[in-house]
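ugh ok fine here u go
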Amino acid sequence: MTADTTSTGQATGASPQPSATASQPRPGVPAFILYLQGEEYGRALRSLTLWVHHVLLPVYGREVTSTAPWCSSWWEHPEAVAQMHGLWLAWTNLTDTSASSGVNGPATWHRDFLSPVMNTLRDQSGPFAGCKAGTHRPKEAPTVDLPDPFAPPPARRPARA
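structure:
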């Protein structure tokens, strides 16, 4: 899937359509970004971008190398958006030491969320593979033979006389 963007930088092809059975978020709990569309997606992406640019990268953004790539247009990579949105949701839950996460929340976030996500994003074969400093390279999703191979067969039309 290619993440086409509008003039606002909002990915138009990055978020799949939620299914009719997709769980609805609880009141006050943000929805996962891949279930959002349109303006909701744009607002969530802007909030995520502010956190990535003002917290994640200044504190945890290590030097870009050929073995640890990063894309300066990371929002053009749906996998990166999904991974970082999950990381941000965990951040909001675990870094409030007065909440249920307690004083161990930040350590848990670092151990269980930050390191695995950053290792995945910065992996040589991760979502930024092929991107160089200041240069974005779109990725092509793997192809499939049939989009819905187990769909019911199409209804047969009656034969004409």
